[in-house]
Design brief:
Length: 293
């Protein structure tokens, strides 16, 4: 069972006029480590990882725009380039670079792009399922015309504009939904993630903190060749992690791992998309060894 969490301090910074939130786990004299969460998640999902690593690193973990305690943007387009700018601003303003980074899912995708864009600012990368859909799924998307892409995007936003955030009568009801979404979680993990992942509404019900507009897929994404170009520009050692029970594909089997200069790929059995929750002990053992200088 994960040990009780002794929490971090909360801070804010501004990016594109948005007030964004991050937590700082202290130990300012230690080497900096940035933890970036995935989509529909929040910075406190890293608490068990941060608690295990805080004695060795100065850890900060942001809430991405539209997530957690960060502001929602006006409009409905959450592009990865905007998230990338936010992280670049966070590191610019806190002056923590060069830094080690661990990212999960969307956060890992941002991490890999940042490390390729600013290779001198990153000394180690751990990316948990951050390479996006397998190449064959991207190929299916190529068949869409420009009109199809834009129509799909407009329809998505129009649908989301009329979507009312789900309200849970009790915290326990939201907690049960969290457990249903990831059966690998222990009850204690699910409760912790739920407590930090919901706001209480004025009528006493609870809703998830994230903006529903983040669900919309942008009409145009970074081409595979452009992503590969950034991956190839990463200079530091890179650890790519995926769960055997997840939708993610082993990047060694489809050639994507070959784009990296210095890469290690690890698969975790009995783990889904949230490897750092599903196999915490094994994840920490691997990551501690990898991050050590």
């Amino acid at each position: 069972m994960p040990e009780p969490i002794h929490g971090p301090t909360s801070h804010s910074y501004f990016s594109q006029r948005l007030r964004l939130h991050y937590v700082d786990w202290g130990n300012a004299g230690a080497p900096p480590l940035l933890l970036i969460h995935g989509g529909r998640d929040h910075c406190r999902n890293w608490d068990w990882v941060a608690e295990a690593l805080r004695k060795d690193y100065h850890i900060i973990a942001p809430d991405l725009r539209g997530h957690g305690d960060s502001q929602w943007m006006m409009g409905g387009s959450y592009a990865i380039s905007e998230y990338l700018y936010d992280i670049a601003q966070l590191l610019h303003q806190t002056k923590l670079a060069p830094v080690k980074i661990i990212g999960h899912s969307l956060g890992a995708a941002i991490t890999l792009r940042y490390a390729g864009l600013y290779p001198k600012n990153v000394t180690k990368v751990v990316a948990i399922e951050g390479m996006g859909p397998a190449p064959h799924r991207r190929d299916d998307r190529k068949e869409l015309t420009t009109q199809d892409r834009l129509n799909r995007w407009i329809d998505q936003l129009r649908d989301l504009s009329g979507r009312v955030p789900r309200r849970y009568a009790t915290l326990e009801e939201a907690w049960n939904r969290m457990q249903d979404a990831n059966p690998h979680l222990t009850p204690e993990q699910a409760r912790h993630l739920t407590i930090h992942g919901v706001n209480q509404n004025e009528d006493g019900t609870y809703s998830w903190k994230f903006d529903n507009y983040i669900r919309a897929s942008p009409p145009f994404t970074m081409p595979s060749a452009a992503s590969a170009e950034l991956w190839a520009a990463i200079e530091c050692p890179t650890l790519l992690i995926h769960g055997a029970d997840s939708w993610a594909v082993d990047p060694r089997t489809d050639g994507r791992a070959a784009h990296f200069k210095n890469v290690q790929v690890e698969e975790f059995k009995n783990a889904g998309h949230w490897v750092h929750h599903d196999q915490l002990a094994g994840f920490l053992k691997l990551v501690k060894g990898f991050l050590a200088d």
